[in-house]
Write a structure and sequence with these properties.
Elements: H1 19-43, H2 45-66, H3 78-93, H4 96-108, H5 110-115, H6 122-149, H7 158-186, H8 189-205, H9 218-226, H10 228-241, H11 246-273
Helix pairs in contact: 1-6, 2-3, 2-6, 3-6, 3-7, 3-10, 4-7, 4-8, 6-7, 7-8, 7-10, 7-11, 10-11
Amino acid sequence: MTTVAHPAPNAIHAPSPSFGDRLRYGWADTANLTRRDIKIWTRNPAFLVFAVIQPVMFVLLFRYVFGGAIPTTVPGGYVNYLMPGIIAQSAAFASFGTAIALARQMQRGVIDRFRSMPMARSAVLLGRLAADTLRLTVTVIVVLGVGYAVGFRFLTGIGPAIGMLVLGIVFGVAICTISAFVGMAIRDEESVGSFGLIWLFPLTFVSSAFVTVRTMPGWLQAFANNQPVTIVIDEMRAMALGGPLVEHGWQSAAWLAGIFVVFIPLAVRAYRRS
């Protein structure tokens, strides 16, 4: 005798959400995690203060300690040459927070709890990047205000000035995607902090951020002239002080697009493997 199995009378067969619903839920989850990170910062304001102190110290040190010994030919003197480099460096260094925060969440099991919840997998990374974008935007604006206080001036009008700030922020977000991958791949907070110093410090200092590349040894100029930090800073400097925009403009766009295309999938893969 064969028994026919029937579905339970109270079973509910919910339809699968549409693509639009999944997209809407994903954005809602991302917004919630972004607010979560921002609340953490507002309850620990010392974090934001210390995040801003370092770039302000760089501005003051290079402006008043090293500036008199570094000759430049740009209009307005060394402070005008310096500030685009400081803004790009500050945006890049702000990415340390991305890697360290993700590594800390990995160690403490926060990522595991997020993965067990009914939420979009992408929201963890997107929420982190959105919050860090706001943080580095605040940092860049504060650094620019300090630069104005010590003599920096835009020479090209409001449009290129805004373009310079936007480019600096996008550059910082691109470095944040690299840091997100590093944080998710290494997973150890102390190791992540040390690794960030190893690759980011040489990349920013062996560039046109603080001195002209032609003052470096010939073998070092080849690297400094063709690495993304120099290319982005030269474009930012042209926007702030005037100069050709096309060559470094498309090179900057190519480098930034390449970083996003490579490291966003790597960060997502590292998150899934976690």
